[in-house]
Design goal:
This protein has 124 residues and is an all-alpha fold. It has helices at 3-13, 24-34, 40-47, 51-59, 69-79, 83-88, 108-123.
């Protein structure tokens, strides 16, 4: 049974509404629950993230145009999911690379932009 099906089965047994995997905030909730955190509050506290910010990302009230890349990377790394899946819903949900480098399915141009952004961040 795939991890996603297993998770949905568990949620059904608990009479909880499964997350909407068509949205970034739904995928973020799925990733958090799969990582073993029962609540957004528990995940934020364990990872030392601002609780209100994380909660608003997960409930979708603060996303606007979507998660910023650096924030999405942080969540993907923490919950061990594929960064491109978290952002777009495409590809495999689970990261196959080591936890500090989630798998990223981006085009060569997108990878260049990501590397330029990381370099600029290092210089700042």
């Amino acid at each position: 049974m795939s991890p996603m099906i297993r998770h949905l089965w568990t949620m059904a047994k608990l009479n909880s509404t499964p997350p909407d995997l068509r949205t970034q905030h739904g995928r973020l909730r799925w990733a958090r629950e799969r990582a073993g955190f029962e609540s957004a509050r528990g995940a934020a506290r364990a990872k030392e993230w601002p609780e209100n910010t994380y909660r608003s990302h997960e409930d979708g009230s603060r996303l606007g145009k979507g998660l910023k890349l650096d924030v999405a990377e942080k969540y993907a790394r923490a919950f061990r999911v594929n960064l491109s899946w978290l952002l777009t819903g495409k590809g495999d949900a689970l990261a196959t690379n080591p936890v500090d480098e989630p798998k990223v399915d981006l085009s060569p141009d997108e990878l260049k932009m990501l590397e330029a952004w990381r370099e600029a961040k290092r210089r700042a």
